[in-house]
């Protein structure tokens, strides 16, 4: 069975992330969504909330495993899971340089583990950061995030 690890902060998951996971499922039998728990930025949502929103967005698809990734190298995490592919999404050209550096660094750190990129589709302009900013200002983020995320953002920023 072919598997890939898709890691990120998912604070919160957006339709861009969902699109990458769905595309990933065309190429891989199973995707492990690894939620980074120790981001340097103060997250808006707790890890439990982030996991809940990911599960809900993917309708509890049995091909998707939602896990936490607490510390250490992503390559070690992947190896521990018996997976040798890291899945990443590419948005604008601005992502490219940093992603390429990370992919090459990860190849150095974890020989035998490869990064596979999937290009963003219609949601190329969406980022968790922008979504939070828009929602905090009272903007309507319907259509760019899953329904449960939209609701939770409304609750967080209710005034
Ligand atoms: P961010 O906080 O920037 O939204 P994450 O750290 O959660 O992102 O990102 C995890 C992965 O998802 C990265 O490979 C990132 O490039 C990708 N990604 C994020 N948003 C999108 C999008 N709108 N379309 C495609 N890929 C995306």
- State the order of secondary-structure elements, H for helix, E for strand: EHEHEHEHEHH
Shape: globular
Mean pLDDT: 94
Uncertain stretches: none
CATH architecture descriptor text: 3-Layer(aba) Sandwich
Q: What is the structural class? A: alpha/beta
The CATH homologous superfamily is called HUPs
CATH topology annotation: Rossmann fold
Structural Rg? 15 Å
C-alpha termini separation: 48 Å
Q: Count of DSSP helices?
A: 6
CATH class: Alpha Beta
What is bound: which ligands?
adenosine-5'-diphosphate
**Total individual domains:** 1
What fraction strand?
A: 15-25%
Strand order of the largest sheet: 1-2-3
Features of the shown structure:
globular, three-stranded parallel sheet, 159 residues, binds adenosine-5'-diphosphate, Rossmann fold, alpha/beta, two-stranded parallel sheet, 6 helices
């Amino acid at each position: 069975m072919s598997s890939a690890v898709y890691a990120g902060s998912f604070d919160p998951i957006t339709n861009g992330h969902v699109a990458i996971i769905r595309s990933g499922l065309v190429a891989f039998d199973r995707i492990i969504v690894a939620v980074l728990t120790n981001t340097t930025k103060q997250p808006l949502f707790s890890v439990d909330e982030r996991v809940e929103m990911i599960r809900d967005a993917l309708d509890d698809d049995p091909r998707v495993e939602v896990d936490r990734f607490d510390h250490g190298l992503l390559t070690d995490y992947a190896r521990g899971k018996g997976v040798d592919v890291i899945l990443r999404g590419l948005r604008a050209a601005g992502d490219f340089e940093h992603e390429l550096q990370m992919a090459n660094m990860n190849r150095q750190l974890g020989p035998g583990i490869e990064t596979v990129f999937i290009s963003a589709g219609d949601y190329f302009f969406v980022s968790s950061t922008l979504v939070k900013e828009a929602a905090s200002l009272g903007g309507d983020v319907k259509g760019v995030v899953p329904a449960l995320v939209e609701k939770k953002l409304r609750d967080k920023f209710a005034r």
